[in-house]
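REQUEST ID: PR-0412
SUBMITTED BY: lab tech R.K.
PRIORITY: routine
TASK: structure prediction, single protein chain
INPUT:
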Amino acid sequence: MKICVPSSGKGGLDDLVGQHFGRVPTYTIKDTETNEIGTIENKSEHMGGVGLPPELLSQAGVDVMLCGGLGNKAVQQFEQFGIEVYVGAKGTVGEAIMAWEAGNLPKATRENACQSHEHHHHH
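STATUS: complete
OUTPUT:
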């Protein structure tokens, strides 16, 4: 299984969780079978590239996305690609993965998704 966390810098377990998943520079991916850590550069249309993050991550074989929060539309896009989304990720990428492994991150639903695209509130 591949777990993905949006990263605010160059990626890796010590990088901080990026709070706006579509605009982060990188995504850190942990393969739970091999424990390998990899990164994918965000080349989505949000960053001047092509495609949406759920599509790019689906092509990379991602099964689970851990993020701080995201909107309804994004939750639906991830669902279309068969990627499960969990919210409430914070701190470092490594801490977010440990929180998910411990069952401490709730699955994203239409109820706990951000209602607007303006992120002026704290999660």
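NOTES: DSSP finds three helices and five strands in the chain.
REVIEWED BY: pending
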